[in-house]
Amino acid sequence: MYRAPLRSRRDDVDPQGAIERAHALGLCGFGGDRDPERLARRVERFADVPDGSFVWTRDAAGLYWLGRLDGPYFYDAEGEDVDLVHVRACRWLTAPIVESATPPAVIATFGRGGRNFQQIHDPDVGGQSARQWEHC
Q1: What's the confidence (pLDDT) of residue 9?
Q2: Which of 36, 97, 119, 131 is the most exposed place for a label (fewest CB within 10 A)?
Q3: Residue 28: alpha-carbon gap to chain centroid
């Protein structure tokens, strides 16, 4: 289970543009980083996540979105304008999930802020996400 903020680390980039691009094209990922070594580690961790893994993101309205990774890592130069260039294919549910139906560990992880793709360490979140996936 992973938190995928789909948000640039740059403050001059509107985060909603990356979310809209990701959902429209079936992508999950993140933007660049000024530190090449840190970026290389982030890309490697992201590329190593197994296909079928659940990912959660949150849009500008605060709604949660559930997706599943569905392909290998690639660099998408066409996403430079919204700083969503380090990507993988992702199947997103067609509708957002309200907070009351979102697993508590997902809400807590986003509540801590941050702009990194990161694993959500909670023993219940995988099963809760799978049930949401099957329900929607």
Answers
A1: 82
A2: 36
A3: 5
